[in-house]
Amino acid sequence: MKKVLLSLAVAMALPLSAQAWTPQNDINVIVAYKAGSGTDTGARLLSSQAEKFIGKTLIINNLPGADGKIGWTRLVQAKPDGYTIGFINLPTFTTLAAQKGAPFKTAQIVPIANHLTETSVIVVRADSKIDSLKGLVDAAKANSKMRCSTNGVKASNHTAAQLFAKSAGIQYKAVPYGGTADQLLALRQGEVDFSCAKIADVAKLVTGDKPELRILGVFDKQRLKEFPNVPTLGEMGYYGEWYGSARALVAPAGMPADVVKYYVDTFKKVMSDPEVIKAHQTAGLNLEYKNDKELGELIKAQEKFARDVISTLY
Fold first, then answer.
1. Which domains, and CATH codes, for the chain?
2. How confident is the model at residue 19 (pLDDT cuts 50, 70, 90)?
């Protein structure tokens, strides 16, 4: 008992700067897309699991609009006191940050951890007459006004459509929506002919007794184990590299090093926990943890991808 009291007394005597930082209030988590989107679904699952480790409520703050610019602008402008963190999507974040007059830059965020990595796919309605990638290419060559819904101008799914179209030598009409949920709703309602999205966003729409959508192709070097009958684009002679999206946790730049360390260490524990891993598997989410340094390298690589590849697509 005396040892406990002594330790407590020593801790109380230390200056605040010498004590390990822990949150004393609830934490604001910014998501730049609407509730129900793929990013939102993953963010809510991870945040709810993290509360057991942090001991505070993680409050999801959906700030959709302008392809993600509204939420991410608010994120980089937030006070770096440890009570606001948020999710970014790559390559969308780096692509938008590279645009002239962008309201934010990659230098305005600090990496915490990568959360999810999702492969992109091409989808049509389940009742579409188009039942293959070749069929889609042939239809697009016959009709250059075919419509493809996207999650915003130069956003991740728009880039996927461009990678496909450029490699297949076709033209199409890109129709931007506020996010992936809205773009897939447009496809389901017959407003467009096809769409590109991440596998987690369409998984529930392409399975079951009455699937609403059909996957035609996968942006990867190998077929997805969950859909072994769906070819890769490369197999068909189109874009042959992996393409998809990473969803990652970051903080506003200027956050004290000990606060950043708290989040880096905590989310490593969260995403290494067997129950958390199982919860993601049950939800069909591809958890791929990367620490802050690995995420930093990924962000740099995505900046290069935006300069060298995405800049040639539009």
1. 24-117+244-312 (3.40.190.150), 119-236 (3.40.190.10)
2. low
